[in-house]
Fold this sequence. Notes:
The chain is of the alpha/beta class and 441 residues long. The chain folds into 3 domains: 2-210, Four Helix Bundle (Hemerythrin (Met), subunit A) (Up-down Bundle), CATH 1.20.120; 222-312, Elongation Factor Tu (Ef-tu), domain 3 (Beta Barrel), CATH 2.40.30.10; 317-438, Rossmann fold, CATH 3.40.50.80. The protein has 16 helices and 12 strands. It has helices spanning 10-36, 44-67, 71-77, 79-112, 116-126, 130-147, 149-152, 157-164, 166-181, 183-186, 189-221, 292-295, 334-343, 363-373, 391-397, 412-424, and strands at residues 2-5, 224-232, 235-241, 255-260, 270-273, 283-288, 306-312, 324-330, 348-354, 376-381, 404-410, 432-438. The radius of gyration is 25 Å and the shape is elongated. Residues 1-12 have low confidence and may be disordered. The chain crosses the membrane at residues 12-31, 51-70, 91-110, 130-151, 163-181, 193-213. It is found in: Membrane. Residues 218-318 form the FAD-binding FR-type domain.
Amino acid sequence: MTAISTAAPARGLTTAQWLLALVGLNAMWVTDLLVMDGGLSDNLLTVLGRATGLYGALLLVFQLFLIARVPWLERGLGMDQLTRWHRWTGFWVLWLLLAHVVFITLGYAASDGSPVVTELGTLVFDTGDVLKATVAMILLVVVAVTSARAARRKMRYETWHFVHLYAYLAVILGFLHQVTTGRDFVGSPVATAYWWTLYGGALTAILAARVLLPLWRNARHQLRVHRVVAESPSVVSVYITGKRLHELPARAGQFFLWRFLTKDRWWEAHPYSLSAMPNTCGLRITVKALGDGSAWLRTLKPGTRVFAEGPYGAFTSNKCGRRGALLIGGGVGITPIRALMEELRGDVVAVYRANQWEDTVLANELRHLAQRMGARLHMVVGPVDDKLLSAAHLAELVPDVRERDVFVCGPPGMTDAVLTTLRALAVPAEQCHAERFAFAA
């Protein structure tokens, strides 16, 4: 799991507005293509089937852009907003495509005067590449079900990520269905050029940002494990070195998707935040053993090759204005907070929330860093209690909290509670920047 940004600064809102406008314009264009192709001359059920199929395909392409991790888009919105949009549009894609299946089947059955079940069998087994589309639909349903929060809580990250990759196969199969049998795809040269351009642009963005750029950066920087340090029985820090690290565009508060190229784990990618400000000497991550993919890191050997994708995340000092900063971290979520604490200058207050002293990872390091940077550090340790980090307690610790940019990173329960407290204290929303531990899409 990793911390991913949820804040929406002015720049992010501008990027969001541009994206929504672009989707709206494309929706209008798709509707225009449907009308120009005589799509309204069919019976109502068939028209609804064609329309839901087209809008579902459009949202599916939009999803591809969201998961492409294009740097300018990711910096503008932040990974968490991209993830929320990806999740929201994913379920809309599912419902639209299910509606497409239902309406098309009912519409064709009405036109042919045949039973619905018979018509469905004819479509699936006797009509072009509809069988491929059926397999794609089944894969999308499986991906959607395993992406539901209740299912994700019961799954290992590695399992969830592997199942999620089948969405790419679903996209390919659905595209092949459109190419061969989609009336609105091949009905006119304009429609054909439009859909090829749309899918081609999305797949090019994925290829460039998720394959070519990581390959180029890793070939250039040649990352390797330098050393592994046990911070506690359940927490380990991995120090990573490489070449030309001054050219790596990483910032404190960001994260990478890490692959440690051992013979039995090279295929696993895990999102971990930087736990120290990146510099020319190297990078550091600090990880709590929350699963097999995390616990084994303490067995890494110096010299192990590392493949990293990123950096990702908009949880950086760019969000800090001229006002002071308040950093609030909990659990292993203290790692990006600790990195930010090293980078930020000026009036900085840090609050470290933990249930017991044994859980205060990097506590001594934070104390020394606070002393060196002239920051104030508050250790808030104790069991879950409504009084700890309540509005009254936080106002006592930081009387001028309304005048600060507030950065929060920790487990979901703690993060939600702190954000509620900040709202109760009337801290402006644009000054609140939160990071959550969640699956990265």
